[in-house]
């Protein structure tokens, strides 16, 4: 009688894939979640006191996190605030104003008319 167990590869092929599998990186120590999962809805930019994650600021500005860090160090981007021991967040109104100032300096923003 053959009591061999099916291989782990065969069992993994039969299991349905979860919807979140695309955001999981395979690594020797097991699955690791990517920080890209922490992108927030862009509607948070309209909430003045919302705290934006680095992934959201990257998505909004189009700059890499390294470029944002260089701009913060040079004083050309609003500094983040500490959010826990290792996390940092940007205040939405500061990021929004920075983007508006950049666009205004390049002449691509029309001034709003008073209603």
List key phrases describing it.
Multidrug-efflux Transporter Regulator, Chain: A, Domain 2; globular
- How many whole angstroms does the radius of gyration measure? 22 Å
How are helices and strands ordered from N to C? HEEEHHEEH
Biggest sheet, spatial arrangement of strands: 3-5-4
What would CATH call the architecture of the domain at 39-105?
Orthogonal Bundle
The major beta sheet can be summarized as: 3 strands, antiparallel
CATH topology of the domain at 39-105, by name, is Multidrug-efflux Transporter Regulator, Chain: A, Domain 2
Helix coverage percent: 25-40%
- Average pLDDT taken over every residue: 77
Shape: globular
The residue ranges in which pLDDT falls below 50 over 5 or more consecutive positions are 19-24
Structural class: alpha+beta
**Broad CATH class of the domain at 39-105:** Mainly Alpha
Q: What percent of residues are in strands?
A: 5-15%
